[in-house]
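Honest question from a wet-lab person: if I give you the sequences of every part of a complex, can you actually get the arrangement of the whole thing, not just the pieces? Trying it with mine:
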Amino acid sequence: MTNYILRRLFGMVVVIFLVLTIAFIIVRLAPGDPAALMLGPVATVEDAQELRARLGLDRPIPVQYATFVLNAVQGDLGTSIFFNQPVTDVLVRRAEPTIFLSVFSLLIALIIATPIGIYAAYRRGSFLDQSAISLAMLAASIPSFWTGLMFQRYLATELGWFPASGYGGPDATFFERMGYLVLPSIVLGIVNSALILRFTRASMLDILGEDYIRTARSKGMSERRVVLRHALKNAAIPIITVVGLTFALLVSGAVVTERVFNIPGMGNLVVSAVLRRDYPVIQGTLIVVASLYVIINLLTDLLYLVVDKRVKY
Amino acid sequence: MAFAFSRRSSLAVALLATTAFAVPAHAQTSIDVAIVGEADTFDPMISTKDVVSVVTQHFVETLYTFDENWNVAPLLATGLPTISDDGLTYTIGIRQGITFHDGSSMDSADVVASLNRWLEVATRGRGVADTVASVDATGDYEVTITMNEPYSPLLSLLAFSNSAAVVYPEEIIGETIDEVIGTGPYRIAEHVPDQYLQLVRFDGYVSRDEPSSGAAGARMQVADEIRFLPVPDPNTRVEGLLSGQFHFAESLPAESFARISDSDAAEPLLLRPFGWPIFAINHKAGLLTDLPLRQALQAALPIDDMLFAAFGDDNFFVVDGPMYPEGWSWRNDAGTELYNQNDQAAAGALLEAAGYDGTPLRILTSRQFDFHFKMAEVAKLALEAAGFTVQMDVVDWATLGQRRNDPALWDIYITHSPFLPEPALTSLYAASSRLGWSNPEKDAILASFTTETDTARRQELFADLQEQVFEDVGFIKIGGFNALSGIAAGVEGVAPTPWPFFWNASAE
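Yes, you can. This is the full assembly:
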């Protein structure tokens, strides 16, 4: 077990180093000059060259890479070109809304998907089952930006039930900031419930067809106990896998929703950073996201041990 | 109540319940302004971005500014300068009793240090640095600028908020400025990048006494706070305005005009005219170094169709050739018979006579400004009808910003600008710009224009310069366009301008 974790941690370091390298190469291959962008439309070529020199962007690429790697292994992801602040500070500040948005979205998705998925499997072929499958397809098919825009227009602007966008001003309390996440959480929750619902249903269908379920029923066990204690427990592993991946996707990929609702999270940050060619921020975000994927994968695998005693590493 | 309920309920209900607390708890005297993006620097000397001008003019100030008629008016200066008869010496009185946000007092040493930095690091300052012999303190509250040669746009440059000659305390002057300290009516309280910039009233501010006029005159400090909120998505700015979240939202899409008009929550603020789209032409390299080809390009463009495709509604554009719109003193008709010819046959004849070999005409544009791309699409069809081979290079704005610096990579790039109060502030006319537009006649006119001090004579020279724009096809003005902003119901004191300011704004 300990060996397994150590092996995984070593693999994690390798993955992150590869991501770090690829991130560095990709952002340098992309055309676009952060200095020209910063200086604005009237700036001359000479202005941009001077700023590039000041930012160290005129140094040879291998020198820039070596500096980047040496600093990164010491936990220094560099300084944001645009914010003139350490990338780690920028990322930490952006992590809060994204993490809460992801957690809320995931909870909403689970609250919607799990009971419906279980019941749809239990009543396979019924009207509810058919409806659940259709709704899941619908939820997965409608782009989140459209749902977001509609929700924003009708629930925020017309009805005034939610703030339309943002993450609170200078005097906003933590609780108020969370209020700004409700509408985007519902949007993302609905979109992500589709996948979880289908996985839950499929996994439960497999298990409900097993011999030991029939045995449990023949022994007179209540249906509630059969479904929730026997079947669900054994159907949990695929569900945990998809929940883990969904969470990782939410943290790294809520780009569109964060953009529509103007939430200053990691997704919004990375889009802005790409448009601004803020190389250190792009690199830093990619490293954090890659680390997150690896960590969530590891935690998901370890969670298997808890729900299924037969799993051994 | 809602919170107590939520603790006993499921998380989903708890999340919904939080919305009762989610309405922003603003003080009554704050003005929330949705802007197009983050101002990535608060040092306006080093940036020519409009968003930087809009934000920073609230906390840093210049010696001069513009009134509502775009006349230069004093701000930190006591009055307009005394200019020697030969136009070489500007003696500027500095207001006494002005305090910086750090509590120190402003005197001529601060102004001299700031102007010297401006001449060294600011794009617009560097552009004029060769004509400035020295900037000296000639008294505790007097500064003298000595010129090598007369330069009539100097005061406009000193008044402009873009790449601005702002005054900082001498102590913080350096190549970069870590913490911006100004004299403005508001000071920075807190900045959370990409979330908000909170400005609070500067209690030590000493306003001018004259009535407010444009950015000149009294700055009233009506609101306790002004908050700038970067909201890059235009639809999100509209929804935020209509939901009551913002008091002002800039750069809104034309399609939202009717919705805002119909709303009780806000009203549209149309800045008519705002500016002009431009086809910038490469005079340094490539196809368009050849005059007949430039003339063919100018002849072929269907300006009406391009503007209609770009803006969709004639409330938002005007087909207008002169470089300045109606009502501006710089307006004249010289050369405008060559505007909007929409004559592909004539363009084809010019191409044939020039022996055009089908080399692609490269149009560099971006979808970041959708109207640029739409204009380019329509232009492409007309140019192809005339016989040009057209290559559209559609890139993001960052790439365009880089590529246009290399003359080998483009023939036309598309940009736009607000109408600027002084023609010489438009860099396109200068041979040193990235367009590299130069011919002896134009260069001589421009030199006379920038050294002439008589206003009437300057207007005549500008007419000559405009004629050159059309005859030599220096660049192509694609009409004029209006900008839409939105202002919440009950907000007063915001004047329409390309660089809106809020020190006189109040909200109910």
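Two things worth pointing out. The first strand of chain B starts at residue 30 and ends at 35. DSSP finds 15 helices and 18 strands in chain B.
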